[in-house]
Backbone:
């Protein structure tokens, strides 16, 4: 019946979100669509228990639309904003279908394959399945293949034919090719963050997988954007799914106030110092930088002012990265400095393609008769970029997919290289109807390379990228406002900023990077089993410890009163002022006297100092 329905729909234009037919359950309901509950969607009762335990009040728009279609066996392509509940939109019908089948057929085989672009997203999906299947854990077996383990361990995980397999396309094809994974009886295929799966270079793996997937498999694709990559995926799997182009009333970006600050390369550090030291931004914040070195430069800079932060980049072990996100979501950390390395790679690719198109257009306008021949010659002669080997995790991603909760602000310390990356970055805040702020630092062309120690290659075309961002946001009815600040009040902090930057040398960055990696590897590997046996102790493992520069400057952690603006004091903790070493009975401090005898017990202020409570 499902196959006949698909044949009828082939060649037809995919219906719009408003034209999608609701499930039979929803049809019978007389209440407004916004008031539909999870009970009305026809899910398994055990799943409803888990949903109630997690205190989900009612389904989101993408869940209301996608779940009935998925339960009816239709292929679905859902485009919905970040934080709109896309994971539950495919996990719940997937689990419900497996439980329904197991009620009559108890044979063991892999029924569902979930493909994700990054390890962080795989871990997030795995935890979501664990939560939703908490009341039917014996009936649902899930294997996650993204952990850094040997092929033998992965083969062991797959030997019992788990119901659901979560993997990146490369790992899935590797196990399928080695016969460790069997997809002969596969019934469901899910591509989460579908547009990113191709962008991350999994084209060949997806082609290979598509040839091994049996006919009649139900395909679900989830994405935050509808790009050419999504259309390519539809072609690879030869599908024409029902399109759901959805937008919540309070969707991504609606609650975001966007600002841009034009400043020099060193002034980025100055503004960041003032913003966090004077606590101009309240709540949790994610700071995006362009590469791993920038993570450590900014962290070492902050440390000198007593500003605590933790780092997230592809070089750190997966367990550490996952733990950092979990602790951030539990409000243990307020500031995460995240390296968005994938954005730089995608930006380079987009820039090369744009330059190539512009050059071809220019040549074609000169010689229209020989345009095709010239284009063919240029394509053949164009040098191909050689990728440099890297120790970083190629399946790392932080600006998309990862669920950061209750983020108050996103700071683009280094502006992304594409307008789409900007949209995904700021989507980390103002999720699920909340409000948030996005602040981006832009380096004008005339200030580029004026301060070499803090310069980065990605800042060269900041103004060009920001112009694209402004146009894109304007199309969506959103405004990127200038961030106005009084430079006269900021300038007095400049000499302290320069002192701190001079202490952050290349040597100190390299040493800090090595030391942090060594510490995180120790925490990740040697303590893994201990924390599995003692999960409560995990709360004491922190990731925002000091790395320290070569030159320590304790005075920078305190702000002199004369530097503060008039309204700046209220945001800082109360200062107790100067505490003298010891006073005699007449109230005179011994600091101005002849000193004290260090070896004498009675004269040693460290041994005689007593805190006395004031009497009323």
Residues:
């Amino acid at each position: 019946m499902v196959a006949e329905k698909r044949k009828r729909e082939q060649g037809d234009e995919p219906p719009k979100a408003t034209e999608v037919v609701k499930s039979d359950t929803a049809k019978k309901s007389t209440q407004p669509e916004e008031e539909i509950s999870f009970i009305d969607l026809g899910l398994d009762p055990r799943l409803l228990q888990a949903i109630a335990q997690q205190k989900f009040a009612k389904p989101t728009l993408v869940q209301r639309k996608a779940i009935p279609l998925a339960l009816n066996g239709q292929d679905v392509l859902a485009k919905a904003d970040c934080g709109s509940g896309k994971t539950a939109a495919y996990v719940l019908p997937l689990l419900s279908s497996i439980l329904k089948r197991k009620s009559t057929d108890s044979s063991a085989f892999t029924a569902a394959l979930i493909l994700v672009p990054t390890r962080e997203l795989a871990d997030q999906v795995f935890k979501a399945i664990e939560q939703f299947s908490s009341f039917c854990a014996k009936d649902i077996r899930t294997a996650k293949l993204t952990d850094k383990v040997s092929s033998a361990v992965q083969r062991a995980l797959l030997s019992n034919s788990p119901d659901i397999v979560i993997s990146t396309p490369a790992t899935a094809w590797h196990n399928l090719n080695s016969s460790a994974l069997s997809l002969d009886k596969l019934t469901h295929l899910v591509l989460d963050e579908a547009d990113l799966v191709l962008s991350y270079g999994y084209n060949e793996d997806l082609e290979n997988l598509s040839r091994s997937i049996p006919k009649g498999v139900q395909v679900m694709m989830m994405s935050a954007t509808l790009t050419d990559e999504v259309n390519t995926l539809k072609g690879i799997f030869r599908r024409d799914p029902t399109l759901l182009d959805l937008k919540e009333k309070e969707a991504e970006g609606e609650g975001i106030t966007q600002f841009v600050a034009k400043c020099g390369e060193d002034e980025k550090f100055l503004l960041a110092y003032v913003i966090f030291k004077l606590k101009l931004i309240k709540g949790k914040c994610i700071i995006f930088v362009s590469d791993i070195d920038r993570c450590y430069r900014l962290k070492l800079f902050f440390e000198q002012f007593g500003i605590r932060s933790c780092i997230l980049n592809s070089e750190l072990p997966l367990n550490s990265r996952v733990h950092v996100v979990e602790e951030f979501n539990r409000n243990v950390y307020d500031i995460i400095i995240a390296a968005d390395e994938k954005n730089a790679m995608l930006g380079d690719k987009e820039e090369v393609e744009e330059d190539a198109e512009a050059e071809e257009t220019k040549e074609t306008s000169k010689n229209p008769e020989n345009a095709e021949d010239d284009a063919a010659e240029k394509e053949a002669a164009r040098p191909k970029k050689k990728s440099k080997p890297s120790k970083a995790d190629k399946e790392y991603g932080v600006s998309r997919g990862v669920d950061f909760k209750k983020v108050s602000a996103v700071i683009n310390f280094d502006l992304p290289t594409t307008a789409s990356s900007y949209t995904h970055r700021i989507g980390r805040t103002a999720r699920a109807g909340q409000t948030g702020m996005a602040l981006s630092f832009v380096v004008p062309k005339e200030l580029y390379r004026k301060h070499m120690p803090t310069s980065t290659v990605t800042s060269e075309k900041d103004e060009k990228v920001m112009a694209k961002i402004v146009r894109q946001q304007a199309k969506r009815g959103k405004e990127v406002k200038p961030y106005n600040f009084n430079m006269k009040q900021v300038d007095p902090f400049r000499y302290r900023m320069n002192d701190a930057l001079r202490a952050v040398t290349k040597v100190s960055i390299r040493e800090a990077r090595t030391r942090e990696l060594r510490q995180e590897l120790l925490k990740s590997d040697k303590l893994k089993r201990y924390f599995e046996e003692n999960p409560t102790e995990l709360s004491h493992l922190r990731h925002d410890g000091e790395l320290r520069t070569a030159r320590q400057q304790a005075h920078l952690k305190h702000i002199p009163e004369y530097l503060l603006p008039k309204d700046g004091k209220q945001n800082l903790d109360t200062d107790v002022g100067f505490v003298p070493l010891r006073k005699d009975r007449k109230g005179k401090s011994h600091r101005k006297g002849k000193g004290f005898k260090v070896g004498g017990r009675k004269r040693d202020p460290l041994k005689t100092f007593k805190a006395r409570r004031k009497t009323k």
In short: Confidence is low (pLDDT under 50) at residues 1-29, 351-390, 591-601. The chain has two domains: 2-245, 256-343+393-554. The first helix runs from residue 2 to 9.
